[in-house]
Amino acid sequence: MTIGQALLSFSVVAALLTVIPGLDTALVLRAAVSRGRGHAVAAALGVGAGCLAWGVAAAVGASALLVASETAYRLLTLAGAVYLVGLGAHLLWTSLRRRPASDDPLEAADVPERGSLWVSWLTGLGTNILNPKIGVFYVATIPQFIPEGTSPLLMGILLAVVHNLIGMAWFAFVIAGAGFMARTLGRSRFARVADRVTGVVLVGFGLRLALQHR
């Protein structure tokens, strides 16, 4: 297998996994609807940074510890579960308490929430860093796409970068679609729905992560 063939084969696998609805897509969609395009881009970049960190860790063999050590895997799993449940509960709580900021519902619907882009980036980063399944995914897949005679470290990093580029393309599509839906249905109403759906998804994933075994 050549480097070109490895990149193409990995791209197909990564693309299929990227478009499957999950936490990353839910977070970026929520940010786009509730806080605007800038926050959605920040969240997407945070998600990408988390994936890249896991990819580099897998390439150098550090995240193999998650496969070999039940204790390490369980501790990171519980930390991730607490983070996801807490974030999901916060979204549900704020969506239930949110009220239009203006007496004019049309005016209120067009005003996204303000806040720090740094927080949006950290939210995307934390969701990935505290998800051990991403590390396990890289450990399980990257070795299969390293051609003989190439540097495992450099090839692993290259594959992680390819995964990130695919993810950014997908997030760009999600952000554009969210902007259209917000303009069509009204930002405030769509934001509440997005927060509630995302909150339920996060809590569900967190509980599943806490209760599952490998």
From TrEMBL:
The keyword Transmembrane applies. GO terms for molecular function: amino acid transmembrane transporter activity. It comes from the Bacteria. It is a multi-pass membrane protein. GO terms for cellular component: plasma membrane. The keyword Translocase does not apply. Its main location: membrane. It is found in: Cell membrane. The chain crosses the membrane at residues 40-68, 75-93, 153-181. The lineage of its organism: Bacteria, Bacillati, Actinomycetota, Actinomycetes, Jiangellales. Keywords: Cell membrane, Membrane, Transmembrane, Transmembrane helix. It holds the Pfam family LysE. InterPro entries: LeuE-type (IPR001123). This is LysE family translocator.
